[in-house]
Design brief:
- This protein has a domain of about 80 residues: 2-Layer Sandwich (Pantoate--beta-alanine Ligase, Chain: A,domain 2), CATH 3.30.1300.
- The relative contact order is 0.09.
- It is about 40% helix and about 15% strand.
- By secondary structure, the protein is of the alpha+beta class.
């Protein structure tokens, strides 16, 4: 005897009719997400990431800048204290002296004293993630941002702390 599947499922057999196995098989919708729904979700996440990551990177860079500006301000105060005690800047930046350049993971500090000992220049040059930034200050408290990475602006009158040349 040969089975007729069409008659078995759709004919007048025990499997046909309302609420039967056939209706349950064909009317059951699978649960889960469609491919279109997943692709739309991925596209939304990609757009958000494209906007958020550059902003976050800029935020992190701006968070490291105070290491340079605070370090230069601290060295300048120590140099002025040294000058008040000795009436010269000569020797103030020597190793072990009061205003010797400090160590920092993101900036290299240098101190240049003039030959007459009456003026100085301090510089903080970025390294690692802060590579490209250079901040300067002198005995007159003239602050300068002499080098910055692409997208930032330099200044001869202040320490730039944000994109667009904002001080």
């Amino acid at each position: 005897m040969q089975l007729n599947f069409r008659k078995l499922f759709f004919g007048k057999t025990c499997f046909a009719g309302k609420g039967t196995l056939v209706n349950q098989i064909f009317k059951h919708r699978s649960s889960g997400f469609t491919l279109i729904e997943l692709m739309v979700t991925i596209a939304i996440i990609a757009v958000l990431a494209a906007i958020a990551l550059p902003s976050y990177k800029d935020y992190v860079i701006r968070g490291h800048i105070p290491q340079a500006t605070n370090g230069l301000a601290d060295m300048r105060i120590k140099l002025e204290q040294f000058f008040q005690d000795n009436r010269t800047y000569a020797g103030a930046c020597d190793k072990g002296a009061a205003a010797a350049p400090s160590t920092n993971p993101d900036f290299t500090f240098t101190c240049n004293i003039a030959a007459d000992g009456m003026s100085y220049g301090l510089k903080a040059e970025g390294k690692g993630p802060m590579n490209g930034f250079t901040y300067e200050v002198n005995e007159s408290n003239a602050r300068k941002t002499s080098a910055v990475p692409t997208g930032w602006s330099t200044s001869n009158t202040c320490w730039v702390t944000a994109t667009g040349g904002r001080c």
